[in-house]
Amino acid sequence: MNRRQFLLLATAGTLGSALGVSALMKHATAATPQCLYSASDNPAGGHFLTRLEISSGTLGSQAVPVRGHAVLPLADGRVLMFGRRPAFECVAVDFAKSGGVTPIQATAGRHFDGHGCLSADGGALFTTESAYDEKRGVLGIRDRKTFQHLGEYDTHGLDPHDVHLMPDGKTLVVANGGIEQHPDFGRRKLNLDTMQPSLVYLDAATGKKIDEYRLPDHQLSIRHLLVTPGGDVGAALQYEGDLHRQQPASLVAWQHRGGGLELLGINTQAITPFSGYMADLAFDPGRNILAVTSPRGNHVSFWGVAEQRFLHATPLPEPSGIAFLPEQQVFRVSDATGSLHTLASNRQQASASLLRQFPDQLWDNHLVIT
Q1: DSSP label at residue 106
Q2: Contact at 8 Å (CB) between 21 and 356?
Q3: Dihedral-angle region of residue 122 (phi above 0 means left; psi in -120 to 50 means alpha; beta otherwise)
Q4: Cα dihedral sign, 110-116-120-124
Q5: Are 33 and 14 within 8 A, CB to CB?
Q6: What is the pLDDT of residue 29?
Q7: How far is Cα 116 from Cα 317, in angstroms, rounded to an integer?
Q8: For residue 323, how many C-alpha atoms fall within 13 Å in the half-sphere facing its CB?
Q9: In terms of DSSP bridges, do strands 289-294 and 299-304 run parallel, antiparallel, or are they unpaired?
C-alpha cells in the first residue's frame, strides 16, 4: 500500500436526514439533497437498505441479507451499508440495478462493527472491525471499487465502532467502545468491569497512533462521533455501569480542536430519562448547539458546546438518526416507529413536528442524504 493511496481529503459518510415531501417542495433549493438513505427493518424482521427519492416521494427498499447500521453513498452510485456488530458481512447496493447487491465478506477472524469511511482520493475504504480471538480492534482497508482486502491498522483499543476523517485530510479519529465481544457469545459484553474505551487518532497514511484520549469513567463507552469542519469532535456515549446504583456524570463529550476530551455538564435529574444511552449526533455551528438522540430514553437532547452543558430535551418515540440542515436551520430526526420529524435548532424547549410516516420502515440509528 503506497502513501498516496491513503492521503485523505474530506470526511466521508456525512450524516443527513429525512424530509417529508410536502416540506421539501416548500423549502426546495438548489442545495436540497435528492435522496436519503438508511438501514431499516420491517415489522416481520426483514432487513433493508432504504432510499427516499425526495423530489417524487418514492420510497424504495432493497432487501439485504444482514441487519444494517451506518450507510455510505459512493461516487459511482452504489451505497454501502455496514453490518450491525457483530457482522460478518456488509453490502453494496446499486439501486439502478434491480437486485444489485454486492456482499463484502469479513476476513478470517474479524467481524464488522458498524461504520466506515473513504480515503482522500476515494480509492480506499476503512471499516471498523474486531479481531475477536486476538482481543483487539482494527480498521480494515479495502479497495473501494472491488472491495478487495488490502490490509488493516490497529486501533489501539477494543470494539472500534465509529471512524471519521479529520479536516486536515491526513488523520483518522476512531471511537474505541472498549467492550470485548466474541461471536460465540452473540452480543454479550464480556469485560464490563475492565473495559477501557478511548478516542484514538491515527495517521491515515501509515496507521501510526498520533494521540489517545480517555474519559474519567471507564464504563462510558464511546460510540458515535461527529467531526466539525473546524476539527472539533463530539462523542455520543453509552453507560455500561449499573443505572440502579448511579447515573453517569454525562452521556455526551466534546473535544475542542487541540484540547482535551471533556464531558458536557448535566445534573442527575436531567440525565436519568436517557437510560444511559445516546446514539446519533448533529451540530448547528451557527448556534453552537449539539443535538443527540436517545432511542432508549425516548428523547432528543440539546447541548451548548460553548458553555459545555445540557440545554434541554424534546420527547420523541425511539429517535434514531439526526442531522442539521443549515438552509432551514432545523434538525431532522428519524425514529424506530417509521416516522420522520423536524426540530427547530433552539436553546429553548420546542416541540417536534411530524413530517412523514412510513409504518413499515423501522429506521436504524443513521441517515445519510445526498
Answers
A1: P
A2: yes
A3: left
A4: positive
A5: no
A6: 39
A7: 28
A8: 23
A9: antiparallel
Residue 323: predicted pLDDT: 84
User: Pairing state of beta strands 233-239 and 220-227?
Assistant: antiparallel
The upper half-sphere exposure of residue 175, i.e. CA atoms within 13 Å in the direction of its Cβ, equals 28
Domain coordinates in residue numbering, the chain: 4-369
> What is residue 99's predicted lDDT score, i.e. its pLDDT?
66
Cα separations (Å) of 328 from 24, 27, 28?
Answer: 11, 8, 10
Task: Please compute, for residue 338, the number of CA atoms within 13 A of its CA located in the half-sphere on the CB side.
Answer: 9
Q: How far is residue 234's CA from residue 250's CA, in Å, rounded to a whole number?
A: 13
* In contact, 223 and 162? CB cutoff 8 Å: yes
Band of residue 93 on the pLDDT scale cut at 50, 70, 90 = very high
Task: Give CA 11 to chain center in angstroms.
Answer: 13
In this model, does residue 22 exceed pLDDT 50? no
Q: What is the four-CA torsion angle of 317, 86, 142, 234, rounded to 10 degrees?
A: 40
Q: Regarding the domain delimited by 4-369, which CATH topology (the fold level of the hierarchy) does it fall under?
A: Methylamine Dehydrogenase; Chain H (2.130.10)
Long-range contacts of 127-135 (CB under 8 A, 24+ apart): 127/82, 127/90, 127/163, 128/155, 128/160, 128/161, 128/162, 128/163, 128/174, 129/160, 130/85, 130/86, 130/158, 130/159, 130/160, 130/181, 132/86, 132/181, 132/182, 132/183, 133/109, 133/182, 134/109, 135/180
Which residue has 451557527 as its cell numbers? 286
Contact between 217 and 197 (Cβ < 8 Å)? no
The least confident of 59-73, 77-91, 214-228, 324-338 is 324-338
